[in-house]
Amino acid sequence: MHIGQTTAKVLVIAGLIGLAGCEGGGLFGSGTQAAPANNERPARERAQPARETIWDLFTDRNDPNTTVEVNKYLWNAARDVLNFLPLQAADPFTGVMVFGYGTPPGGGRAYKATVYVSDPALDARSIEVSLQSRSGPVSTEAAHKVEDAILARARQLRIQDRNL
Hints:
Layout: H1 5-20, H2 43-47, H3 72-81, E1 87-91, E2 96-102, E3 111-117, E4 127-133, E5 136-137, H4 140-162
Antiparallel strand pairs: 1-2, 2-3, 3-4, 4-5
Helix pairs in contact: 3-4
């Protein structure tokens, strides 16, 4: 079944009008929301910036002076531990490092890795490693061993910095 352009436009406009009439302002933010009885916003609303309308998506409410925090010890330790792999891409703003195929010393199988440093804390939750061989993904146990090696090296680097 094929609908005409006019029918399609009418359906889109009707949908937008329906959304605009939803509680809380819908698409265009023209409605009002009832305040909670205790005059406090729920925790999830306090944690996120207030977005009232679809047009707020196009405004920049973020502080331009905000810096991205990636743990430098984890970052450098990942480079040290995976030094046998060629570094293809690195983005310190997102914390992602992409390594190409390489063979570890004393090994015969080639691997490539993606490392994601997600947090400034120096703990296991701050790093994720994905390993792949030419025949497919490597076990999560092997990836966890690489993560452990990176964490151990990162702790060594931090101790060296404290001794300066």
